[in-house]
Write a structure and sequence with these properties.
about 250 residues, alpha/beta, Rossmann fold, seven-stranded parallel sheet, about 50% helix, about 15% strand, globular
Length: about 250
Amino acid sequence: MTITDKALDGRVALVTGGSRGIGRAICVALARRGAKVVINYAAREDAARETAELVTAAGGTAALSAFDVASGDAVTEAVKAIGKDHGGLDILVNNAGVAINGLLLRYKDDQWARTLQVNLAGAFHCARAAASLLLRAKEHGRIINITSVVGESGNGGQVAYAASKAGLIGLTQSLAKELASRGVTANAVSPGFIDTDMTAEHLPEAARAKLLEQIPLARIGLADDVAHAVAFLAGPEAAYITGQVLRVNGGLLM
């Protein structure tokens, strides 16, 4: 199913980590609903430009913004520029993330720090920088954080990733309470195992087959499955939904 209505016409959305994978699908889904999409990337400008072409083809307007979400100063400067260049900000999707896997006994301090700095602190940096713009958007303001099924269930070999994604849920619920008085909502989308480059890298074929046995819908999810959930939460239909975690996992965790 493709969402094609223009309920987000005139809205400005910032999607972090929007150059590929789930982030790219989110950018396109928001564009189909009419949004002007600011595509954040840290290094892959070529991939970000490919996403911009897809956004334009989907009927939206695209812009690029290069910054590392792990740097609070870089985020503050970039979001300020986005607000100035585009006349405000209505939707923030905190999607940027890294997965540095490893067993606890061998896990290094720098791996732990980098994972939490990007996945959790990055979302905090972006929410803090965008808050004043979102509050001006009032009932159109949306924060959507991309967490993970492992943030709710835990997973061996992913101590840092699971911790960072669990932290995003607490961040989401706290933001929801702080911003609700102005009509701004904050929700999280919790994907299960989604068919992306990141999943392919960390999920060997044997493990993939075993995982499929645990998913009631008997398939790995698609990036579009997540993107449709984000587009719904970004739209007017979700105006009375805040502080929630929307699971998109095929029934893996209920």
